[in-house]
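Two quick folds needed for the group meeting slides. Do the first one here.
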Amino acid sequence: MEQVPSEERPTPGTAGRPETPGDDHDPTTRQLRLFLTLARELHFGRAAQRLYMTQPSLSRQIRLLENRLGVPLVDRTSRSVRLTEAGRTLLPEAENVLTAMSRLRSRAAEQSRRVRGRLVLGFVAGESAMPYTHAILDELTRRHPAVSVELRLLTFGDQFERLADDDVDAALLRPPLPPPLRTMTLAVEPRVACLPSSDPLADPAVGRPLTLTDLAEHRMVDMPASVSRTWWDDWTVNPRPDGTPVQYGPVVTDIEGLLTEVARGRAISFLPEAARRLYPRPGIHYVHVTDAPMSSAALAWLPGRHERPTVAALLDAARAVAPPANTPL
């Protein structure tokens, strides 16, 4: 049997009576939550138990809510509790208010977590045009619109130095990368041979992919001394599988220089498959090489750099859009 303490029982004519001057007359979200729980249970004892409060305290809050709204919400008797007509009418409105408040708090928390500041993202060659780069930057902007991103072109010769010197916060590079760089793989694709159109092997009439053996007598474009030899030997597949060393030709520092030297017929190079789309140039032809190693693209940063809010935000965005199989190297 529902027992309502005498001091909590409604007094005729009290609903809608003005409260003590200076009191806030607007219902609180807590009072609305208590009302919703009581409306579900229709029993002060059970509702109070669910709310981890005493029955008199719950009854007092419901009475306060009724006074603030100016209408009775529940009919109380010693045997039952039921919603009044006003209670039934206002119940969905109370639910809407609580839903809106929850959404407001969620949006406020989201705003508080958003990062602000400037991020300098370096890139080599055509990495800024790749789909994964656009996906990462779009995700970063969606999550943290107050982060401004500057894209900075790096050369083959200074890509690692500018990252180490903190000229850029992170960079889109092509492994293998020297320690102590940390990397996250973004994509993997085949390598192609970049040949001058005048080369007999570039003739479409050949009609077949090439092998490293086919290219054994070709000179490869070389890099300046500032470039990691391990990195460039990997790209040129030096030495070849049979132990033959690669013969090097002219030195270049960036992709445009590389393409120019190839088009002039002075050397060849290996490039990622995406070069077909990114660098269609007069005098150049791309041919698939069946036994060349695959090429990977990576987001690179120095240890400790991930503690910067902008870099952490970039890494989170990259993880969100990178394929599940792409894990840190």
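Then this one, please, same format:
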Amino acid sequence: MIRSLGIGLLAAAALILQSVWPSGVWAEGTTSDTNKLKQIQQEKQQAEKKVDAAQSELSAAKEKVDQIEKEIGSIDDQIAKHKADLQKSQRELKQKQEKFNTVVARMYQQGQSHYLAFMLNADSFNDFLARFELVRIVLKREKNVLDGYKKAQSDIEKQIKTIEQKKKEKEPYLKKAQAELANYTAVYNQHASKLKQLKHDETVTKEAIERKNRAVRAAKSSGTSYGTGKLAWPQPGGTVTSPFGYRSGRMHEGIDIGNSIGSPILAADNGEVVLTKSDPGGYGYYVVIDHGNGLKTLYAHMYPSTVTVSVGERVRKGQRIASVGNNGRSTGPHLHFETHKNGTPVNPMKYY
């Protein structure tokens, strides 16, 4: 009678704690695979946001580089055009040079007396004036040849300097933009790699949970109704640290009952042990008891050395079957306790 009253008080205390404790307190110290999945999924959401932000910054940096590259490409096109113009101008310069050389040679060979003799051989004054004008035109034309040569040379040199200066002005901006792009690329790759690992961890953890559920469903049931339908508290003195149900959109398929290592774990009702299993990366070592009428209970995170029952063994309600451990994916000693009805995890608290 006293024992039943104590268990009832513990169950009532657990219900009161579940209703008044904030979710952050419930979540503190959770260690089952479902809690690990929640943590992974929360980290994945944060990583996805970081990847999106990094992707936005990366795209902006890439656009900046592309714009400068486009501007430099336009300058290169101008350079190519001016080089083509330069080749054409060089050919013209060569012709001007040859003509210039011819004029200079002729002036040297004939001297100024040639032009004077040409004018003095005029038949009349009008003829003299005509010859004088002709000489003036010839000399002006020859001077234009020399001036044209010098101007063409100067124009080409100015064009080359202007284009080279434009390209030099763009190069520092390009280097800076490329450095920013490299930094954003590194940040993006880092976050993308983290997200990829979290997605992998999420898949692995989901698979671990599903393996556990499949194992519970597959565990042979005798069809016999062993239990009373009213479960005893499986961990006397233990405190619920994480309830059953959705938290932040994530499902926790059992309850976590925290207590010190070695504290007794009791069978919640009469039944038959139908599964004992080691899951080092997840639930540690766990035991499943079939109580009949489609009801099974699961006890997890024990050390195998503390388990005192084996598959096929009949157990009594309140019988010690193991001790609280910290085995598997666990950050603190506790019992992870589940109830499965017809193969589906349900809230254990409905049985108290």
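Slide caption for protein two: Residues 40 and 201 are 7 Å apart (CA to CA).
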